[in-house]
Amino acid sequence: MSAEWLRWVRRGGPGERPGSSQEPGPRSLSPSPSPAPCYRRPKFLRGGGGGEESPRGRRAVRGTGPERPLLWGSGYAEVINAEKSEFNEDQATCCQISIRRRELGLEEDKEWLILCSTQFLTGYYWALFDGHGGPSAAVIASNYLHYCIKQKLEEVAGAITEARPPMHVSGRCVCDSDPQFVEEKHIRVEDMVVGALENAFQECDEVIGQEMEATGQTGGCTALAALYFQGKLYVANAGDSRAILVLKDTIVPMSCEFTPETERQRLQHLAFLFPKLLDGEFTRFEFPRRLKGDDVGQKVLYRDYFMEGWGYKLVEKADLKYPLVHGHGKQARLLGTLAVSRGLGDHQLKVIDTNIEVKPFLSCIPKVNIFDFALHDIKENDVLIMATDGLWDILCNKEVAHMARSFLAENRTDPHRFSELAKRLVRRARGKKIGHQWMLDDSREASYDDISVFVVPLHNRDEDC
After folding, report:
1. pLDDT in tens, 216-233
2. Total structural domains in the chain?
3. Helix or strand (DSSP H, E) at 401
């Protein structure tokens, strides 16, 4: 699969249809220049995903309605930022993924028909993408990541239908001890799915780089994807969006934010291994504050890549350079440029007024967490809540869980309650406009960012092959 597939999709290829297994034929493509990504809202929104329904100043909340039901009756809502950028840079995708083992020959196809009489395994997919530097990367990722996941799962489909993955894709044992080696490595079927997701993110990132370069676009995006497959929920995150499971008696975090602060050690270690990446403009060391000339020759607190704790370092002149990770909390920046340390895109991004590339430090590989439904008694009001950072900057996990439990308990008979809950969460974080400011009910400042929320019910979920 290549960037040509995405171009084919834009010219009328298969949409996000449940059960769609049609694949484009690259040979039918003509070598034409790649068009710039077409900005539009998610296809499943009312009005076919056109422009904003209200003037920007009102920040109208848009959401799914009964005429466009999502998988499992999921709810979705979004609101554009308060003039932070021209467009809503968040994007979303929700679709069913049909996975078939790749046909390498007739015999293998016969074997597959025995493994699964319907010829398909089915996955259910929800994803959020938070763009920065423009919406282009988020648009491409929302159109393409699920195709990458489909392809990578199809490559290992034979392994994920076995009790334990075979050493060789063909199933042959070149070495009699192959099953023992696999067992010793504790390789499970779910490890194959995790590997497929990691590879899919990497391929999608490569395609975004090719497309952005071909069209003269810039920017990147975070990516948060949830895949329900073979009785397990896989949540893959690269960025600072967040997913939580709100169960009857507990909250289960399904992702962690990747920021320059949370990944300080990885970033510092990369700078230690490849100091040329900093081009003599930055120091990898962390200090409690930006050092000044008077600090030279003094012993000050510092941390290096191998340190969880703090120590003292004799300050040298080189330590006065701008730090690799600077700032605290939401103000922390990687190379003074990005507020996230994982994401897709940003291949052309350089530190201002330098030739230093940010991408070597910006990883596209997600962290994948797994929730096994077989180990839990899922109740009627248990939900997965996914949202971009516009929500989590205002509401903590406990506040979101309290809102979800209270609302769902009071609206048991409403068939559209999950959509309404998504809208309520967005409205809560957006607040109300008072004068020139957006404020919460408790007089705190509300979110000025784009906000996107999925609410996915878990109780009456569809089952796969």
Report:
1. 889 999 999 999 999 999
2. 2
3. helix 397-410
